[in-house]
């Protein structure tokens, strides 16, 4: 396979974040089309490496091996078998097949998976001249395949990422209900924060939102601290990842001074947050301190506050959580120049906070429907233009 070969690619994303993934791709100079839960684009091995290294809000980068309609299992078998699997899978490849089927005639996902697997095995046997009596070894590099059916349209993909992109590699420990790193990055991206302004998370838990803000502030690629499964494939040129990582390191601004603070009432969580920030080398960029939300005061202006407070999903927690929302309203309201962004699944949040949001945005935290309540602060006065 040549470096210049063009692949059809898809970046998958949580529902509500696909537009952010599309914007990130375009900012990287990669044209794309955004659909529900994904962004579609094309590119070379370098594009695959760049997307894996740089996308903050996506889940995975997959190669689309083929797309077609199938209305019978025979048709599925023949069309999967007709795809050029030998271009991707060596003779000893380990290739489990995941599957999903939505609103399709072929509704049995296990059958779709086993037929897809059988079709690929048959193709590889013929290409590599293996007798039908000898099973394929599957002792080599790992390729996670997926056959996905939607309204009888089949998409067959290979995952290039490995563990999901939200696994940045810096979380040594996490709290009880941690926010995924890509969701935390999305929350920061959805604000009007600029790196020359204060940033604060008043219920920071294990520090994820603050750490993602610091990564954005320093322009550090979120995947710089981890490996990707495609790096283990013999046809994927290892020099490409070296090049992309080196370029990412050159683009990072390690010298910029950021004003990022996180606080939490729980001292143990603050210790975890500090350890996580140290793990990724951002210990000096973020101030973490133990502090009850009601005790927060600041003289700073034009800052941005992002909070993912407890949602009170468990029995008996609702009352204490709503008391916290009320405290938030009382503490934050005097901060007229600050913009506040609060993520919760409690749709009555505004009632307890004591003010209507400027804007709300629906997001899914895992399978849970949540809303990002946005309270926009006053803008700084415009500087007079110099004559």
TrEMBL record:
Keywords: Methyltransferase, RNA-binding, Transferase. This is N6-adenine-specific DNA methylase. GO terms for molecular function: RNA binding; rRNA (guanine-N2-)-methyltransferase activity; rRNA (guanine-N7-)-methyltransferase activity. It comes from Enterococcus haemoperoxidus ATCC BAA-382. PANTHER family: RIBOSOMAL RNA LARGE SUBUNIT METHYLTRANSFERASE K/L, RIBOSOMAL RNA LARGE SUBUNIT METHYLTRANSFERASE K_L. Coiled coil: none annotated. Residues 47-160 form the THUMP domain. The keyword Transferase applies. Transmembrane segments: none annotated. Pfam families: RlmL_1st (PF22020), THUMP (PF02926), UPF0020 (PF01170). SMART domains: THUMP. It comes from the Bacteria.
């Amino acid at each position: 396979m040549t470096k210049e070969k063009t692949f059809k690619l898809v970046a998958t994303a949580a529902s509500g974040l696909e537009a952010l993934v599309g914007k990130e791709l375009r900012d990287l100079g990669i044209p794309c089309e955004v659909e529900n839960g994904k962004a579609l684009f094309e590119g070379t091995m370098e594009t695959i490496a760049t997307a894996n290294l740089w996308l903050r809000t996506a889940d995975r980068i997959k190669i689309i091996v083929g797309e077609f309609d199938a209305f019978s299992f025979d048709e599925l078998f023949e069309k999967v078998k007709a795809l050029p699997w030998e271009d991707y899978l060596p003779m000893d490849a380990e290739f489990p097949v995941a599957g999903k089927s939505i609103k399709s005639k072929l509704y049995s996902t296990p059958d779709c998976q086993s037929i897809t697997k059988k079709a690929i095995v048959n193709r590889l046997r013929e290409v590599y001249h293996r007798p039908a009596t000898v099973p394929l070894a599957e002792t080599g590099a790992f390729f996670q395949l997926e056959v996905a059916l939607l309204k009888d349209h089949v998409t067959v993909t290979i995952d290039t990422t490995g563990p999901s992109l939200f696994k940045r590699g810096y979380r040594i420990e996490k709290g009880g209900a941690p926010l995924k790193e890509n969701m935390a990055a999305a929350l920061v991206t959805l604000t009007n924060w600029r790196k020359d302004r204060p940033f604060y998370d008043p219920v920071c838990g294990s520090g994820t939102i603050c750490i993602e803000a610091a990564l954005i502030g320093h322009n550090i690629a979120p995947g710089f601290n981890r490996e990707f499964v495609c790096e283990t494939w013999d046809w994927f040129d290892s020099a490409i990842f070296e090049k992309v990582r080196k370029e990412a390191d050159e683009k990072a601004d390690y010298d910029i001074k950021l004003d990022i603070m996180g606080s939490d009432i729980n001292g143990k969580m603050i210790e975890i947050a500090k350890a996580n920030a140290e793990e990724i080398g951002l210990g000096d960029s973020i101030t973490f301190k133990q502090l009850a939300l009601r005790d927060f005061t600041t003289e700073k202006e034009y800052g941005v506050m992002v909070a993912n407070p407890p949602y009170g999903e468990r029995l008996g927690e609702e009352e204490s959580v709503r008391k916290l929302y009320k405290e938030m309203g009382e503490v934050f309201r005097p901060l007229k120049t600050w913009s506040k962004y609060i993520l919760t699944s409690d749709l009555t949040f505004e009632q307890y906070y004591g003010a209507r949001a400027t804007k709300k945005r629906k997001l899914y935290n895992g399978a849970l429907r949540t809303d990002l309540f946005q309270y926009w602060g006053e803008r700084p006065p415009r500087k007079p233009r110099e004559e």
